[in-house]
Amino acid sequence: MLRITDERIKIMTELFKSMRFVKMFCWESVFENKIYRIRKQEMIQLALRSFIDCIHSFLSNTYVGLTFLLIYGTMWNFNIYFDTRFYAIAFMLLSHVEYSIMVFFTEGIRSFAKFMAAQKRIQAFLLFDESERDRRLLSISSMETQSNGHRTTYEMNNEEKYLATTPAKGFSEVECNVKHAQWEQNAVFSLKNIIFHAHPGDLICIIGPVGSGKSSLLQTLTGEIAFFDGKVRLRGSFCYVPQEPWIFSSTVKKNIIFGKNYDGHLFRQVIRAAALEADLALLPNGVNTMVGDQGVMLSGGQKARVNMARALYRDADIYLLDDPLSAVDAKVSKQLFERSIKTYLGDKICILVTHQIQFLESATKIVVLENGGMIEMGTYAELLSTSKKFRCLLENINQQEEQEHVELTTDNQERKLTRCVTFSEYDHENELLIYPSNCEIKEEGSVKWYTYIEYLRAGIGSVFGILLLILVFGFREIATVFYSWWLAKWSEDEGHRHQNLTNCSNMMNEKTYMIRSMNDEEWEQYGDNRFYVNCGIGFIVFVLTFLRVIAMKLICLNSGRVLHNRMFRRLLRSPISFFDLNPVGRILNRFTKDIAVIDEHLPLTFFEFLECMFQVVGTLALVSWLNRWALIPSVIGIIFMCYIRHRYARCSRDLKRLDGISRSPIYSYLTSTIHGLKVIRSYHAEKTCLSEFFTHLDDNTRANYLLLTTVRWAAIRFDWTVLFFIAVVTALALIVRIIGQQFSAADIALTLSYSLYLMGLLQWTIRFVTSGTFSNHI
Question: In the UniProt record, does the keyword Isomerase occur (predicted)?
Answer without folding.
Answer: no
